[in-house]
Design goal:
The structure holds two protein chains of two kinds. In chain A, about 30% of the residues lie in helices and about 25% in strands. Chain A contains 17 helices and 22 strands. In chain A, helix 14 runs parallel beside helix 15. The radius of gyration of chain A is 24 Å and the shape is globular. Chain B is globular and about 60 Å long. In chain B, a hairpin with a 2-residue loop joins strand 2 and strand 3. By secondary structure, chain B is mostly helical. Classes of the chains: A alpha/beta, B mainly alpha. Chains A and B meet through helix 10, helix 11 and strand 18 of A and helix 1, helix 9 and helix 10 of B.
């Protein structure tokens, strides 16, 4: 068979780590080939070799039957390989058109930018997506889904025949995901080949023609769609059978710890009321942009509320800053791990200790031994994989980074834990561990709140669930009371009138 | 077995390179010192070394304070003007109001800390960029100095006060002792107190620190207070040493101070750096100034060398970043 792309025997080592060893990977024209594996399995490294960012130690790459010898980012783009990275690489304050044609702006005879032509070309590039995006719009004003589409449009405008998508749905929800899938289907029809990296196995099932699973830098298996069940995929990814994807436990609801009454902030949330009990996990579902994160940020004092009340253990708490929230026993594990949860340039130790330095110091002088002991105990208890607590968190894998963020808050024994998308972008094995950690917090008597865009996860892990639509809680229900389809309907605002 | 030993030697080799890269400035520093010892017989004498450190201490003390500010990702351009104002007020109190040395000195340090506090509050609560606030403060503080002194120098202090800049304790110049103590205190604060750890953390990711329930505004304000106090302290030494407070004292010092911090490997974007680096950076500038004077190099040319040194240090830092 003639492969469009054939990578064979690819190996790549970094000091102390063998990231890829003897990996084979190929791509047929017009297919979607999913690349699956746990964090650190080597998916991103393989794609960086393909994009020309890394040079493989061993192995060959054939593109349309021709071997590629000298590779650099620029050459690979010219060869028609477009990579859309997990972190979007758009320039926020430039327009859509400027982003798409960055570095190759059409010029006038005088050498100035030919704006009318650039805008026309942009419209042409965006036309197939049938979206309401104007070329002059600043990228920052667009949502994550649209930004993703602009990245895709940019790659296509470069005549990409092979498109690499790294976790494209990580920042999207519901209808946005569907829109992306439609676009993917259209691209395939037009003969574009896609390499698709995702942790969401349902997506992989839905989209992929073939699936390749990597584990610890080696290719485990390549199969056609339908030949692998979810369970089988997970088995190949982790190299063992997971006992259960969603561990269960018996919750013992206790007293109401956090009570929110009519919390309102203009443009963010409207008359939000709910209670969180000790020993229970309260899930918040809704589309991205529904205001779940903002509701929690308002409770946490990160955003200023307009009206409404927050009570902690029955006592009114007028929280005006994050510091006061933490002082009252609330911990918030933010959505953006790297931007809000960690100081990437600091060590595991420094990050984990960040929230408790005030507890373990006298007149500002730290009790180093005590803190080191606490951090070590926590890191062992959570099985965080790091060579030492002196290692910079920058160098840990996504799952381990997330565990460091959790460790930071677990050390501090809060009464209320708010998790915002705690499992985004981390692998299946680490997810299960995080569910268990959340359940342990609940067992210990904390009130746990979880925001998640992965419906099955919220539906299986939470004891109580609230659905948010446009800043309002439109429905509350107990675990098992509603089906996924019904929850989706509420999330889309189809039952708005019924109220909470 | 053979593979294992191979891995081991590979590991050792990388460590060796790493040591070279991480201590690049220290190595440059020693090479320059060795070179100068050959070129000028006077360079490596106790007298000259003490002289270098004494000269270094004046801006070195401020550089210690500046390290805190730059670690948070901020900058303070007003240190020279703060020095001018604090020195002038101290001199004025002693000469015109017959205030005692200790009270006058304390007031000078308070003035420094006070202006730092003002800088810090404008930056945190006023939400104005540090560059802008302290740029404004450069002329405000200088203007206040001119108003207070009418533009005339105030000179001639008691012999006790002159000890501060010119005296010795067990053969070591007092400014050197103050400098070393300042470095030691700063090292302790940076490594063993909340203020220090938060200073690094804020520079690394302010958002994370805020969400961790820490008052970013308070700690950010504190670093400007620290550099203000350091400037006040430095003002005392300079005024004592010159036996005169000039209205233009400290003008342009911010450049040497920032240069010392940057040469010492502290990142201007914050979050990474060390006080020992700043000490070496300050000494390196001192040694180069001194060496070029000894070799009779024109002051015009000296400026070119100093500028090149700053850029060179940043390139070195960049190289280290890329290989790590």
């Amino acid at each position: 068979m003639e492969y469009l792309l054939k990578m064979s025997g690819i190996s790549k080592s970094f000091p102390g780590v063998r990231a890829l060893s003897n990996v084979d990977f190929n791509l047929i024209k017009g297919e979607l080939h999913a690349l699956v594996g746990e964090n650190g399995a080597g998916k991103s490294t393989l794609m960086k070799v393909l994009s020309g960012l890394y040079k493989a130690d061993e192995g060959t790459i054939f593109l349309k039957g021709k071997q590629i010898v000298t590779i650099g980012l620029r050459e690979m783009i010219q060869q028609g390989i477009g990579v859309i990275y997990q972190e979007l690489n758009l320039i926020p304050y430039l327009s859509v058109a400027e982003n798409i044609f960055l570095g190759r702006e059409p010029r006038t005879a005088l050498g100035t930018i030919d704006w009318p032509r650039m805008h026309a070309m942009t419209e042409e590039v965006l036309a197939p997506f049938k979206l309401d995006i104007h070329p002059k719009q600043k990228v920052i004003a667009l949502g994550a889904a649209y930004q993703q589409i602009i990245e895709i449009a940019k790659a296509l405008s470069l005549q990409a025949e092979i498109l690499v998508m790294d976790e494209p749905t990580a920042a999207l929800a519901g209808n946005e995901v569907n829109r992306l899938f439609e676009i993917i289907a259209r691209l395939k029809k037009e003969g574009v080949s896609i390499i698709y990296i995702s942790h969401r196995l349902n997506e992989v099932h839905h989209l992929a023609d073939r699936v390749t699973i990597l584990r610890d830098g080696e290719r485990v298996i390549t199969k056609a769609r339908g030949e692998l069940s979810n369970d089988a995929m997970i088995k190949y990814m982790v190299g063992r059978v997971l006992d259960e994807q969603y561990p269960q436990y018996d919750s013992v609801p206790g007293n109401v710890i956090l009570e929110v009454k009519n919390l309102t902030k203009k443009g963010v949330c409207d008359q939000v009321s709910f209670t969180a009990r000790a020993g229970e996990i309260l899930g918040f579902v809704g589309l991205v942009g529904a205001g779940r994160t903002e509701i929690m940020q308002t409770i946490y004092g990160y955003l200023k509320k307009d009206s409404g009340e927050v009570l902690i253990n029955g006592k009114p708490a007028n929280i005006k800053s994050c510091r006061e929230a933490v002082g009252l026993g609330i911990g918030l594990i933010p959505e953006e791990r790297k931007q809000q949860g960690l100081v990437l340039g600091m060590s595991v130790f420094d990050n984990a200790a960040l929230s408790v330095l005030d507890l373990y110091s006298t007149f500002g002088v730290l009790h180093r031994k005590k803190i080191t002991h606490e951090v070590n105990t926590m890191i062992d208890g959570m099985s965080i994989k790091t060579p030492s607590i002196r290692q910079l968190v920058r160098y840990l894998s996504g799952g381990n980074q997330q565990k460091v963020v959790l460790a930071k808050w677990f050390i501090r024994h809060c009464d209320v834990y708010i998790f915002d998308e705690p499992t985004r972008g981390i692998d299946v094995g680490a997810k299960v561990e995080i569910y268990r950690l959340m359940q342990n917090l609940a067992k210990r008597g904390a009130a746990v709140i979880m925001i998640s865009s992965e419906l099955p996860e919220v539906m299986n892990i939470s004891d109580q669930i609230a659905i948010v639509f446009e800043g309002k809680i439109v429905k509350k229900f107990k675990k098992g009371e509603l089906h996924e389809e019904e929850v989706m309907e509420y999330s889309l605002g189809l039952h708005e009138q019924q109220g909470a | 077995m053979s593979q294992r030993s191979k891995v081991k030697t590979m590991g050792r080799k990388i460590d060796y390179k790493q040591v070279l890269k991480n201590n690049g400035i220290l190595i440059v520093f020693f090479l320059i010192c060795i070179g100068l010892s050959f070129l000028s017989p006077y360079f490596f004498t106790m007298n000259n070394i003490m002289n270098i450190i004494r000269q270094t201490s004046i801006y070195g003390i401020i550089a210690v304070g500046m390290t805190f500010v730059i670690l948070t990702g901020g900058i303070d351009l007003s240190v020279g003007s703060i020095l001018g104002l604090a020195g002038m007020i101290c001199a004025g109190l002693m000469k015109n109001n017959e205030t005692g040395i200790f009270v006058a000195s304390a007031v000078a340090i308070l003035v420094g800390g006070g202006i730092g506090l003002l800088n810090g509050l404008l930056i945190t609560f006023g939400k104005i960029a540090p560059f802008v606030v302290t740029l404004g403060m450069v002329t405000i503080a200088r203007g206040l100095t001119l108003i207070y002194s009418n533009g005339y120098p105030i000179s001639g202090f008691s012999s006790e006060f002159r000890q501060l800049g010119g005296g010795y304790i067990v053969g070591i110049p007092i400014p050197v002792i103050i400098f070393v103590v300042t470095v030691a205190i700063a090292w302790f604060i940076l490594n063993h107190t909340r203020l220090g750890r938060y200073t690094y953390a804020i520079g690394g990711n302010e958002e994370t620190v805020k969400l961790s329930g820490i008052s970013v505004k308070f700690y950010k304000t504190m670093v400007y207070v620290i550099v203000g106090i350091a400037s006040g302290l430095s003002a005392l030494i300079l005024t004592s040493r010159l036996n005169s407070a000039e209205a233009i004292a400290g003008q342009g010092y911010e450049l040497d101070v920032i240069a010392a911090v940057v040469i010492g490997g502290t990142s201007l974007s914050g979050g990474r750096g060390s006080i020992i680096g700043t000490l070496i950076g300050a000494l390196l500038i001192g040694v180069i100034n001194n060496g070029m004077n000894l070799l009779g190099i024109s002051p015009y040319f000296q400026q070119v060398v100093k500028g090149a040194l700053i850029i060179g240090a940043v390139i070195l830092d960049r190289l280290r970043d890329e290989t790590n």
